[in-house]
Write a structure and sequence with these properties.
Mean pLDDT: 94
Helix content: 25-40%
Low-confidence stretches: none
Order of helices and strands: EEEHEHEEEHEHHEHHEHHEEEHHHH
CATH superfamily: Ribokinase
CATH class: Alpha Beta
Number of strands: 13
Distance between the termini: 12 Å
Strand order of the largest sheet: 5-4-1-8-9-10-11-12-13
Number of domains: 1
Shape: globular
């Protein structure tokens, strides 16, 4: 049963929790001790777990964050940003003597985002830090950045994923870095248990060592992964259908401010669609719409306001798809209301 008032129910996001500090527009880095005026500077909760979690909370999920952070001011800022969006931070564990993972992002006028990153506490997560009962009670588990979780990825993470799967949760994984075949081998156990894997095209090629995305996807499906969606930036995404073949869903054109967090927005949209019972292609359309909206503002928490707002935006490009998703949402909400009052 979903949590009261939430057709999506409770979703756990496990992995990379990063504080992003972003400024725009940055045309050049001043020489020496020079300075430059910017129009905007923001700090946001980001990373493949936290960024996706914030967007899921906006879309109506009850989000529970799990990860390792530092015991510093950055951790206070990160948890504050998550709580401001209604995310339950009870699963975040502070690690003394290690700084919170953080990134400085000077955003170029065209929306590109070079990054200056400190890995920080993300890889310090341990099995003993995690309440398995809380994970087992979730409708979905998002494993964000298993490639950045160090030894935990090849050890205790499998225990967490199995606990979620045993409880009937949808398990979805995404990676943080471009990666390599060695990383692919290290996270293979997680992908084997995952219902969906949502990398970008550079990541899926680098992880598998395949030049062709279709070949790379076949390698992933051979592990036992239920489905794969590959984001293509301005070209939209590819998503596997029922026969394992790839279906192209185009991007929705917007005026791009910053591409930070577009992948996290895509993930949140796809997960929302799947939890509502949509078919994978409609779920991908919802993901594309969320990713496009994130690109219209600064930071990974930009653009998305609510599921209703996203559906209104999607209707401008694909009215029939938006209507089908809206029908699924109404059906889930009605069923939730009946269960609540039973």
């Amino acid at each position: 049963m979903s949590e009261a008032g939430s057709p999506l129910g409770r979703v756990a996001v496990l992995g990379a929790h990063i504080l992003d500090v972003l400024g725009r527009p940055v045309e050049t880095i001043p020489a020496g001790q020079g300075s430059a005026r910017l129009s905007e500077i923001r700090a946001t909760a980001a990373g493949t777990a936290a960024g996706t979690g914030v967007d899921l909370a906006k879309l109506g999920a009850q989000v529970y964050s799990i990860g390792a952070i530092g015991d510093d001011l950055l951790a206070d800022m990160l948890t504050g940003a998550l709580r401001a969006h209604g995310v339950d931070t009870g699963g975040l564990v502070r690690k003394p003597g290690v700084q919170t993972s953080a990134t400085i992002l000077p955003i170029r006028p065209n929306g590109e985002r070079p990054a200056l990153h400190v890995p920080g506490a993300t890889s310090r997560l341990e099995l003993a830090d995690i309440d398995l009962a809380a994970v087992a009670g979730c409708r979905a588990l998002v494993v964000g950045a298993p490639d950045a979780l160090g030894d935990f990825a090849a050890g205790g993470l499998g225990t967490v994923v199995r606990a979620a799967a045993a409880g009937g949760a949808l398990v979805v994984a995404d990676v943080l870095h471009q990666g390599s075949p060695a990383d692919f081998s290290r996270i293979a156990d997680v992908l084997q248990l995952a219902g969906w894997f949502l990398p970008n095209c550079d990541q899926v090629r680098a992880l598998t060592g395949r030049a062709d995305v279709a070949d790379a996807v076949r390698d992933i499906l051979a592990l036992g992964t239920g489905g794969v969606a590959v984001t293509l930036g301005a070209d939209g995404c590819l998503i596997t259908g029922g026969d394992g073949g790839l279906i192209h869903v185009p991007a929705i054109e917007v005026d791009v401010v910053d591409t930070t967090g577009c992948g996290d927005g895509f993930n949140a949209g796809v997960i929302t669609g799947l939890l509502l019972g949509c078919d994978p292609v409609d779920a991908a359309w919802l993901g594309v719409a969320c990713g496009a909206l994130v690109a219209t503002g600064l930071g990974s928490d930009a653009g998305i306001v609510s599921l209703g707002q996203v559906l209104g935006f999607l209707a401008g490009a694909e009215r029939d798809v938006a209507a089908r998703i809206g029908d699924r949402l109404a059906s889930c909400a009605a069923r939730e209301s009946e269960e609540t009052h039973a």
